[in-house]
Design goal:
The protein is of the alpha+beta class. 20% of the residues lie in helices and 35% in strands. The radius of gyration is 27 Å and the shape is elongated.
């Protein structure tokens, strides 16, 4: 009885999961990546303006759809209204409160429902911090400046709004309020790290955002309701709800600091090992892979770099470098910056 050995072959997609290190090194030694892209080549990026009317029961004020390779991200912007204190003359214009951010929630489609994953929560927090420290949205740009609905003699309502230099006492009793922006990002067909495509989707949704006018009812403004508690009489001040004007002709673009807006580019750095005829002779060098894709690249490229370049291609708005798997030196960082600049010029 003879033992027969049969060679087992796996398709590239299966080998990526079974032995990602072997699969990636074999491809890199051939000058290719498992996704068959060049080392410095990014996946095609397609951006379109969304037309969402409603998202999870809330009216959307801005939206976008971004496709990056096989990954698609749909972003919808909704808003809330909060009461804000009157601005103080002692408030410093250089304080962090001068700028604000949007509150994003990332949901990766995975065929089941449940609590958010660590990746979703980390990605949401990173998007929030990036928008905040990029100084794209000023706190003043989200001031709502409510108008007032006054009843005419015939019973109809007329809404009047304050002018930029309004000095009338009509609006003095109306409390200040501001908009709060929420971003809902849904990811489909995930095929790699998601920060670049989610950041692009969020930025384009903000560019597409239009804020509505808001008003209060004159008849309910600052009503004093008599109350009684343990034999004592008093008054409870009751303010009206802030209502949204449905007239789309009055909606205006969200003011953004466009000079601070940039394009995010991410890279993975890995050590490429080339074996010679002598097994002891091993030469290693760092290889930069733009826009990681697939299981092997994502799991083996532990060293990462993320760079955001502004639209004028003159300043870096964000730089993040994480080591742990490859040697990252000054030349590596310079090359990543140069590739990011070239990409921002062509997108």
């Amino acid at each position: 009885m003879t033992n027969e050995f049969h060679q087992i072959s796996f398709p590239p997609s299966v080998l990526d999961r079974l032995a990602p290190d072997i699969s990636l090194q074999r491809h890199l030694n051939l000058g290719l990546r498992p996704c068959l892209r060049n080392f410095n080549e990014f996946k095609p990026l397609e951006v379109s303006t969304g037309n969402l009317q409603e998202l999870e029961g809330n009216f959307t004020v801005g939206s976008s759809i971004v496709k990056n390779g096989n990954t698609t991200v749909i972003c919808g912007i909704t808003l809330g209204i909060v009461e804000t204190p009157k601005s103080s003359i002692f408030e410093s214009t250089d304080s962090e409160s001068t700028y604000t951010s949007v509150y994003p929630v990332v949901e990766i489609s995975r065929g089941r429902s449940g609590a958010p994953t660590d990746e979703e929560m980390i990605l949401s927090q990173k998007l929030y911090e990036t928008i905040l420290h990029s100084k794209i949205i000023s706190t003043k740009s989200l001031e709502a400046k409510p108008g007032m609905a006054i009843a005419n003699d015939d019973g109809s309502l007329e809404i009047i709004y304050p002018t930029p230099n309004e000095t009338s006492d009509v609006f003095s009793n109306i409390k200040s309020c501001s908009f709060v922006l929420y971003a809902h990002l849904k990811v489909f067909s995930r095929s790699g790290p998601l920060f670049d495509v989610c950041h692009t989707s969020l930025i384009n949704a903000l560019k597409n955002t239009k804020l509505p006018k808001v008003y209060v009812q004159d008849s309910f403004n600052n009503i004093k309701v008599p109350i009684r508690s343990k034999g004592n009489f008093g008054h409870l001040s009751k303010s009206s709800d802030v209502l949204i004007d449905g007239n789309k002709a009055l909606m205006y673009d969200l003011p953004l600091n466009h000079e601070q807006i940039g394009l995010s580019s991410s890279f993975g750095i890995i050590e490429l090992e080339s074996n010679s005829t002598n097994d002891m002779d091993i030469d290693s060098k760092s290889v930069i892979l733009a826009d990681l894709e697939g299981d092997s690249e994502e799991s083996e490229c532990l060293s990462r770099a993320n760079i955001i370049i502004d639209q004028d291609n003159s300043h870096m708005k964000h730089v993040s470098i994480v080591g742990g798997g490859a040697n990252i030196n000054i030349d590596t960082i310079k090359e990543c910056i140069q590739i990011a600049k070239l990409r921002s010029m062509n997108v």
